[in-house]
């Protein structure tokens, strides 16, 4: 790279860097992520400007040093968009995308305009094509010895008149959050209430799914009590008692 840059080179490289970051940001904005169009464009613009500055000075080794500083700085920026949500972590993809936006900015500032465009298309391809592939992989049954045999039991006490509706809703809600029902037991406690017990197979951490399930069912009229717990050992469901 030449020690100095012409104004045309500066504008061209900056435009390519910002444009590549904006292309990545369009996909993020469309997905309603925290870092969207402007954030990715600004990250790419900042990385491009830092490296363009180093390219305009007389020290030929400064470009490499500044590029390494950009990589470190983006790490702190990416850490700011990573959030902990209960037992899960959100924002990892957003942080990685910001890192990639900075990388295409560095490529553009270094004069590798075609490489910057190819890198941008690669980032977009990851988001657009690997997202559905990841969802398909999530649906594949996993034979994990750490979670094999783990079951969860959901207990629901409801009014007798709401029993039929809540029984159907319980099974629908269980499958709706991705759990596999393995049994359902109904027992009439007295002439006014019925106790429902559903057992489900658990794969992985069930906390989030159970939270959604309990929140959904607790809003239904006629529910008097609702709770759940995990069973670490594989158990055969108890035979249902005859309804009276």
From TrEMBL:
Its main location: membrane. The keyword Transmembrane applies. Residues 154-228 form the MgtC-like C-terminal domain. It comes from the Bacteria. InterPro entries: MgtC-like_C (IPR048640), MgtC/SapB/SrpB/YhiD_fam (IPR003416), MgtC_SapB_SrpB_YhiD_N (IPR049177). Residues 14-134 form the MgtC/SapB/SrpB/YhiD N-terminal domain. The chain crosses the membrane at residues 37-54, 66-83, 95-128. Keywords: Cell membrane, Membrane, Transmembrane, Transmembrane helix. GO terms for cellular component: plasma membrane. It is found in: Cell membrane. The keyword Nucleotidyltransferase does not apply. It is a multi-pass membrane protein. Gene3D superfamilies: 3.30.70.260. Belongs to the MgtC/SapB family. This is Putative Mg2+ transporter-C (MgtC) family protein. The lineage of its organism: Bacteria, Bacillati, Actinomycetota, Actinomycetes, Kitasatosporales.
